[in-house]
Amino acid sequence: MPAVKVVEKTPLFLKAIVDGVSPSLVNALRRVIIAELPALAIDTVIVITNTSAMYDEMLAHRLALIPLTTPLHALPSIEDCETGVVDPSECTVRLTLNVTASDDVMVYSGHLVSDRPDVAPVYKEVPIVKLVKGQSIVLEAYARLGRARDHAKWQAALASYYYYPRVVIKDDRCREICKDICKNLEDPLECTFNRAWACKDICGDGLVVEWDKYKYVFWIESFGNYDIDTVLRETFSIIKKKMSRFLETLMQRAADYSQGK
Questions:
Q1: Is 0.90 surpassed by the pTM of this model?
Q2: Which domain holds residue 103?
Q3: pLDDT tens per residue, range 95-148
Q4: What is the distance between the alpha carbons of residues 227 and 87, in angstroms, rounded to a whole number?
Q5: DSSP string for residues in 31-79
Q6: How many domains does the chain have?
């Protein structure tokens, strides 16, 4: 039976041991997390005034990469936004930036002002541009709901995994030889597969390194657009929708084939 054991969890990070599932399923989970999750990101910038040393295009690029809080419960579904079921304005949030330097000043993400109190830069101290005395920036930025499969600025989280290593110590001297690489050779969370192989290169036949094909150490890190619980909830919702569409298409094709279409 598949099993999941949480090793570490914070509001923006999760590490877990996943056991009893195929590599294709774990990889599908990873791919959905890094490419399919919806998030708000600045997509259009209207520059009214920019007397800084930075080109408008570079300024817009920097603004686009600032993570924004994304209250999914208060926004339309990403599918409705992509298909035009709802008015595009419902999938968009306006932010403004208006800074004039009375002295040398660094403009940070915290200077952005949002029309919605629940949408704002996740981190207030992301540097945007430095202004010297007399320079100014006035602009309007429009954040749109999107997915990382279209552009990395919409990526809400990172995810990766590695096979659960199995280390067999045949020569106790390996513990001393490898202590700088792995303090505990039998701890798969500390001594990852790559580290274990590095130990084997040093220790030789005194160490056997294998892996479990159906067991993994899986981790997720949110960029702060929303918390880990929301990341997981949205990920499994997307996978469920994809599987439902696949089954519907498969059944329809089967029905068409049986009718000679």
A1: no
A2: 40-153
A3: 999 999 999 999 999 999 999 999 999 999 999 999 999 999 999 999 999 999
A4: 27
A5: HHHHHT-EEEEEEEEEEEEE-SSS-HHHHHHHHHTS-B---GGGS--HH
A6: 1
